[in-house]
Amino acid sequence: MPREDFIAIDNFSFHYGAKQALHRINMSIPERKVTALIGPSGCGKSTLLRNMNRMNDLIDGVRHEGDIRLNDQSLYDPKIEVISLRKRVGMVFQKYNPFAKTIYENVVFSLRVAGRNKKKELDEVVERSLHSAALWDEVKDRLHSSAFGLSGGQQQRLCIARAIANQPEILLMDEPCAALDPTATLKIEHLIRQLKDQYTIVIVTHNMEQATRCSDRTAFLYMGRLIEYGPTRDIFENPQEGETESYISGRFS
Amino acid sequence: MVWLTAAGLAVGVILTLGLLSLVLVKGMESFWPNRLVVVDVNKDGVEEKIGGYIAQERERRDMAGVYHEEIQVFRGNRDLYGETFVFIDRAEVQSTSEPEDLWVVERLEGGSVIGRAVAIEFGSGERLEVGAPEFMDRIAQEIETNEDLREELEVIEKGEIGRNSERVKELTNQERLHGPSAEITLELEVLQAEFAELDKKRLEVRERLEADRFIMASVDGKELGIATGELLHVFEPNKVGVFGRLGEMFRRIWSFLSSNPREANTEGGVYPAIFGTVVMTLVMSLFVTPFGVIAAIYLREYAKQGPLVQAVRISVNNLAGVPSIVFGVFGLAFFIYFVGGVVDDWFYSDLEEPVFKSGGILWASLTLALLTVPVVIVATEEALAAVPRGVREAALACGASKWQMIQRVVLPASLPGILTGVILAMARGAGEVAPLMLVGVVKSAPDLPIDGVSPFIHAERQFMHLGFHIYDLGFQSPDSEAAKPMVFATTLLLITIVVVMNLAAITLRNHLRKKYATSSF
Description:
The structure holds two protein chains of two kinds.
Chain A: E1 7-16, E2 19-29, E3 34-38, H1 45-51, E4 62-70, E5 73-74, H2 82-88, E6 89-92, H3 103-107, H4 109-113, H5 119-132, H6 136-139, H7 152-164, E7 170-174, H8 182-195, E8 200-204, H9 208-214, E9 217-222, E10 225-231, H10 232-237, H11 242-248
Parallel strand pairs in A: 3-8, 3-9, 6-7, 7-8
Antiparallel strand pairs in A: 1-2, 1-4, 4-5, 9-10
Helix pairs in contact in A: 5-7, 7-8
Chain B: H1 2-29, E1 37-43, E2 46-61, E3 67-74, H2 78-81, E4 85-89, E5 93-97, E6 102-107, E7 113-121, E8 127-129, H3 135-178, H4 182-211, E9 213-217, E10 223-227, E11 231-235, H5 242-258, E12 261-262, E13 267-268, H6 271-302, H7 307-319, H8 324-347, H9 361-385, H10 389-397, H11 402-430, H12 436-439, H13 466-476, H14 480-515
Antiparallel strand pairs in B: 1-2, 1-5, 2-3, 3-4, 6-7, 6-11, 7-8, 7-9, 9-10, 12-13
């Protein structure tokens, strides 16, 4: 039975130095559903996403209050290592960023760093991940050529394959289609709908149509606060808050 | 503004091209076999024939302010005239001719001989005059057999006698340390007998080398006998056409590249200097690359960016501006006297002569590595900084630790940039001379740092270097006029070697770039 509060964000505040980016966010993200985070630039949606695998720890002078729990386990539990946490939470970035390696090595990167080097296992993972990322048929003949030879959309799907290679529980996507053309965007959206059978997906997007097309839940953030959160259809067809309505009707961006 | 910037570039390009073409022309010129001339000179009633090739023409203003057109002739035959170059006033020239039967003869000692061939006098008493049909073949044959003999002599002198005296030295050293013993005395006696035998063999070979004589006559009729064992090469430049000359030029270039220097470096080749330069530069890159890259990784990836790191960075940059001779002094004091002294104390304390406590190729390479490390650090830091944050985050998001991220993603991506730094360091290191003079470069080092004698790599050996060779030829040799062509040829060679090593590194870098295509960032 999928859990409703697979990721539980509890009174979470976040500061970059003196600037507070998130104000006491409370929300639960359901298991094996797509949850979209929308809102204008600088509203804190990326910050929130990047806290779910503690990517923001890399920045100097950050500070947080409250807690985020993953399947009832706190991310900030001193017993949890950041590295093992990130193995459970895959991430896809706004700008596709494959490594300067072959397609094959890009996909198996997370296994290699975990010390899993058995050829047979790696081969299986490559095929499965690329299938899941709907890229297998396009690249199966050139697995050992450079990843930079692929088109932008293919590179982004390769990044998705890389993120799911280690079979994480959660997949974070930070505006995955921002750098892609409409055709590539549609492919990725289609892929997202397929992937939710296996993964809990959190996606940050600027594109409201994208949110309606592929998410089950939508959260609207504004000025570092969670304004409204609910089933996607409700948010877009019947927003409860004035700010949400203004945003989705395009009155500010 | 466009014009100003373009002019700036143009000046730079013209200066560089001018320098390069000067070196190229003068360097190649020194290999080109000139036609030989005989000049009849009448100087204040004294008639003289001067044979040789015209090295240059110039105008000279004398004390009275009168201009004289002069030609400089290389006449060779140092044993006859003392000076190999002579200036002739055009006004004193009676006539000039280019007789076909003039020879240029290269020999082991005394510089080249220019004149006519007369005969070969064999040790057996036979005499073969120049007109004889088999004369040319016999000369060629003599040169060939004597070359073999000289090789034989070297095997005896350097190999067998060398080993013998090495063992004697070892034994006497043991005697000095542990007192005399019957065994040592016995072995010494055996060695002495062996030495006497070898010495006899050596003298025999020497005698055979000196048995036959090649008789020549200079253009003014003075006779000159050269032991055929001294002959290296004979050539009749006025008899051959353009292709013959080209062939002779390539032969000269090859002999320049492949043979040892003779006569205080002014004659012969530069092979040991090429070897020394290349080995030293490669060993230097071997040291400087890991050292510089590791330092840069710490500075860029691990160190907390702040005033301290900034200060370190500025210091590293300033290090590149320290006069190179200072590095030489440091290398001498630290590597040779301190480190070398410690090594000698630990491993060679039973020897009287210093082994590592004197200049050698290892210390020279380390000194130059120190000199060039800022270049590698700066280039590597820039290459690391150019790796986009997205790629780093992607690696971390895949569960990589920081070191795994650096090692598997950041370093491969910055490899081309790092190699650029290494290329720059190599170019800088190969051309450096001043510090080397303190830490192991010498004007003549017949034993190469890598050879067939166990333990094959002799890191403590002194070595020759093309840069120092240029200095030595141009400013330290007794006849700097005669050495001038060699200076240009050596300069050309040094530039060529630096270019070749750079091209090799650039090819490697491009190969790496192509392997990963161009990054999309």
